[in-house]
Amino acid sequence: MKKESSKHNRKNRCRAGEIGTKTCFVTKEEALRTEMLRFVSTPDHQIVFDVAEKLPGRGFWLKADESVLKRAIEKHLFSKAAKGSVQISDDLPKQVGRALKDRCLDLLGLCRKAGLLTFGYAAVKKEMAKGNVVAVFEASEASKREQQKLFRDSDPISVWQILSRSELGHIAGSDEVVHMALSGGHLSEQVIQTAKKIGLYYDGQNLKG
User: Fold this and answer.
1) Are 162 and 103 in contact (CB under 8 A)?
2) Which of 33, 37, 76, 122 is in the most buried spot, having the most CB atoms within 10 Å?
3) Is the pLDDT score of 35 beyond 50?
4) Tens of pLDDT along 115-161?
5) Could you tell me the sign of the dihedral formed by the alpha carbons of 139, 145, 150, 152, in that order?
6) Does 34 map to a domain?
7) Residue 20's CB: how many other CB atoms inside 10 A?
8) Which residues contact 198 (CB under 8 A, 6 or more apart)?
């Protein structure tokens, strides 16, 4: 039997979701790669956020935590990790938050095209009863009454409050949406991973999961 190369094996492991851990260059803590952010230094020594984790060059891994990123900037830890002077945008923390949210919105747009999204309280409740839902998004400004309409504390489904009514509505092609359900599919895990990073970055804004 032909022996697979180590490179091929790594690709297979990535497809299977075996993604391993990374060490934060600021805190020195090890965490799952899905809970980390990757930054790279461009040829002109500019630090940029690699939201898709595909940019060439050496990566600097950092906990998905806005306060840790701000500490790295204030204490010039990127320069120390890069072993040389680097340029950092003043609004890098804001850029990271925006890039994560944009990626989440883009992925959810693809999920809609794939038929993996359900919108509105009644439709979401019906889909949950079928057991097809892997995560639910609720508008970040939803009232307590709206939040509690669908769920009990014992429900195992992840619930995220990281997108506004208008952002959820944009995905649905309407003005505003409060409840949106995500069904299992090829893209679902990418959405959940991105949502998790957003929640961690802004100090755990997901309700469950």
Assistant:
1) no
2) 37
3) yes
4) 999 999 999 989 988 888 999 999 998 887 777 666 655 567 888 99
5) positive
6) yes
7) 11
8) 97, 100, 101, 104, 160, 162, 205
Handedness of CA 141, 144, 150, 151 (dihedral sign): positive
pLDDT for the residue 185:
81
What is the mean pLDDT of the segment spanning 61-65?
97
Helix, strand, coil content of the chain in percent (nearest 5): 40, 20, 40
Question: Which residues, at least 6 apart from 203, have a Cβ–Cβ distance to it below 8 Å?
Answer: 65, 66, 67
Domain residues for the domain of 150 are: 97-201
Q: How many domains does the chain have?
A: 2
Contact 170, 134 (CB under 8 A): no
The residue written with tokens 């965490």 in the block is 31
